[in-house]
Amino acid sequence: MKILVTGASGQLGSTFKALAEEGHTKGLKFEFRSSSDLDVTDFAAVREELLSSDYAYCINCAAFTHVDRAETENDLAYKVNVTGARNLAMNCNESNTVLIHISTDFVFDGFLNTPYLEDDIARPIGFYGDTKYKGERAIVGNLEEHFILRTSWLYSEFGHNFMKTMIRVGTEKEELSVVYDQVGTPTYALDLAKVVLHIINAHSIDYGVYNYSNEGVASWYDFAKEIFKQYNIDVNLKPILSEEYPTPAERPKFSVLDKSKIKDTFGLKIPHWKESLEVALKAYSKINI
Asked: 271, 260, 263: which is closest to 114 by C-alpha?
């Protein structure tokens, strides 16, 4: 089975690449395309890529994920997250390719105090979340054979993410302040990638929208504290309110995702975020000796 991975230079795309190089994707032939190889906002380029090869699946990891920059770089965020998603969906439809698209907890406003279900009302509070939701709708409107996986607080040993930032600043500074009134679930990219592979290998036709994150709940403060604990970084960590650390984009205060649907549909056992963090930190250490 041939599989196209877009956005291949990002942390999730890099995770798929590492799995393929390590021989964990037997029977699957991957083609990796970074943004410089394939611009998903270019309809003709996407059409040529999908129609020139017999792809069974396209895993769309291409996204404008700079939450704060999206507030000012509206055009680029919209093109990548909405136009890009639509281009892939329309051409996947023509080429009979199943699209697996990665979305986000930012489609929700964070005003609930119970975990979000897939059919809860999407009400983004920032431009990034708005474009990601519109990208979802563009896929639903143009392609029946799709999987949309909403995830949260993604991190890994690759790319730019919270775990790596905390390791860097934690070794540079004696004191740090991290918000404790934003609650969600850290998700290790390797776990998400394995779920995508599980769906592919199952030849599932249970198309639709699914939530996926690791198990457990944490604030950003909790996440940082556990990173420092497991990585043996001695830093004075202080919890602060979001209003004490203003950012251009407002973040959801509560974005815990209910994963019952994906667990029941695919028989998954999802690891707790602290267990996955331990795996991620070991992987990070190996490539940062």
From this structure: 260
The counts of H helices and E strands in the chain are 10, 12
Closest C-alpha to 111, from 248, 251, 265, 218: 251
Give one DSSP letter per residue of 58-75, joined into a string.
EEE------TTGGGT-HH
Which tokens sit at 121?
């009302």
Q: Whole-angstrom Cα distance, residue 75 to residue 111?
A: 28
User: What is d(CA 49, CA 41) in angstroms, rounded to the nearest whole number?
Assistant: 13
- In terms of DSSP H, where are the helices of 106-161? 127-142
Token pair for 96:
């009979």
**Rounded Cα gap, residues 278 and 262, in angstroms:** 24
Q: How far apart are CA 136 and CA 200, in angstroms?
A: 20
175-217 pLDDT, tens digit each:
999 999 999 999 999 999 999 999 999 999 999 999 999 999 9
For Cα atoms 49, 67, 165, give the angle at the middle one, nearest 5 degrees: 100
- Long-range CB pairs of 73-76 (<8 Å, 24+ gap) are 74/127
pLDDT at 289 exceeding the cut of 80: no
User: What are the phi and psi torsion angles at 44 (to 5°)?
Assistant: -65, -40
- Determine contact, residues 275/190, Cβ cutoff 8 Å: no
Which of 78, 116, 128, 188 is labelled catalytic? 128
Q: How many residues does the chain have?
A: 289
Q: Coil, strand, or helix at residue 81?
A: helix
210 noted as active-site residue: no
Cα gap 86→104, rounded to integer Å: 17
pTM of the model: 0.97
* Cβ neighbour number for residue 96 with a 10 Å cutoff: 11
Compute the radius of gyration of the chain from its Cα atoms: 18
CB atoms within 10 A of CB 238: 12
Asked if 7 contacts 135 with a C-beta cutoff of 8 angstroms, the reply is no
